[in-house]
Amino acid sequence: MPYDTQADIPDDALLVLYANGDQSAARSLTLRLTPRVFSHAFRMLGDRAEAEDVAQEALIRLWKIAPEWRQGEAKVTTWLYRVVANLCTDRLRKGRGVGLDTIAEPEDDAKGPAQVMQDRARLDALQAALNTLPERQRQAVVLRHIEGLGNPEIAGILEISVEAVESLTARGKRMLAKALAGQKEALGYSDDG
Amino acid sequence: MTDKDRDDMMLDALFAEARADTAAEPSPDFLAKVLGDAEAFQPTAPEVAPLPERSGFWRSVLAVLGGWPSVSGLAMAATAGVWIGVVGSTSLIEDGIGASLLSAGQDSFLSDLDTSYAFVVE
Questions:
Q1: Span A79-121, pLDDT tens digits
Q2: I want to staple A39 with a disulfide (CB 3.0 to 4.6 A). Which of A73, A103, B24, B114 is the partner?
Q3: Which helix (DSSP H) or strand (DSSP E) does residue B40 occupy?
Q4: Phi and psi (nearest 5°) for B67?
């Protein structure tokens, strides 16, 4: 990340610097953690505005807990993903609808409008399919396959065993494939291939 | 190729597209808002309040004398003076020379202290 001049410093050490009043640590942590937190919230909720609310709330909790953070005890991202997951779960359980219409249109001049629409359609279809999964399956699939985390870290975030994570992601993928089955050709995937 | 393989390929391709999706990136405005929060909630080192200026007679005397270094020098000199006075007076009185100095009508000479001061008359 080009603006993170403290790229070699681990998250928890940066958090200690932050708690000691280091302003560059505040900037580095913001630039390093916000994209991850926002991305996960967005994949869980499918709505930019709600994802921003959740990401902001999760990070405010981090800023507040910083003075009491004990270095080396817990991984900052694990703690943060757990907070995001819980906040998303709270919102989803309140029965809000998923506003796929609010997903921003990409600004990509390199592709023609038809290609952009097709790409967008695929991503919207994936998001719609993700939204049909039970929360825990959705969290596990997003963390494993979109955020790219390892199973042990996901197990720490969801507070379950690694075997349970493997089971959740396998079931989640099966359900995703089922949800997308009727749209394969429309999305540019053919059973012939 | 089985159905499962085809499904896995499709999902892997979709996941790869999702990872590169700019819609899942935070906007610059949102980043600025988060940074604003970070700065607002950041603890600051407690400011050390300056000690209140005290005034009084002894403080002004101390200032006139030049502060504690000067006063400690004066105290050292005074102590040394008292010590020299006490030790010197008793030793001189004891060996008789002090007594002769204190009593009137008697001449005292340096040669009484040390014969090297005496002129040798041949």
A1: 999 999 999 999 988 865 444 444 444 444 456 666 666 778 8
A2: B24
A3: helix B28-41
A4: 90, -175
**What's the pLDDT at A1?**
45
B21 touches chain A (CB under 8 A): yes
Beta carbons of B23 and A104 less than 8 Å apart: yes
Condensed to tens digits (0 to 9), the pLDDT of residues A124-180 reads: 899 999 999 999 999 999 999 999 999 999 999 999 999 999 999 999 999 999 999
- Among the residues of A46-75, which ranges form H helices? 48-65
Q: Tell me how far apart the alpha carbons of residues A84 and A41 are, in angstroms, rounded to a whole number.
A: 6
Q: Which residue of B has its CA nearest to A123?
A: B18
CA B21 to CA B48: how far, in whole Å? 50
Whole-angstrom distance, CA of residue A26 vs CA of residue A14: 8
Residues 6+ away with beta carbon under 8 Å from A35 = B25, B26
Query: Mutation test of the interface with chain B: which of A22, A118, A123, choosing the one with the most B Cβ atoms within 10 A?
Result: A123
Domains of chain A: 1-98 (1.10.1740.10), 106-193 (1.10.10.10)
Query: Which residue, among A116, A110, A130, has the nearest Cα to A173 in the 3D structure?
Result: A130
Residue B82 buriedness (CB in 10 A; 0-12 / 13-18 / 19+): exposed
Check CB contact under 8 Å for A177 and B11. yes
Sign of CA dihedral A118, A119, A121, A125: positive
| Inter-chain CB proximity A106 and B39 less than 8 Å | no
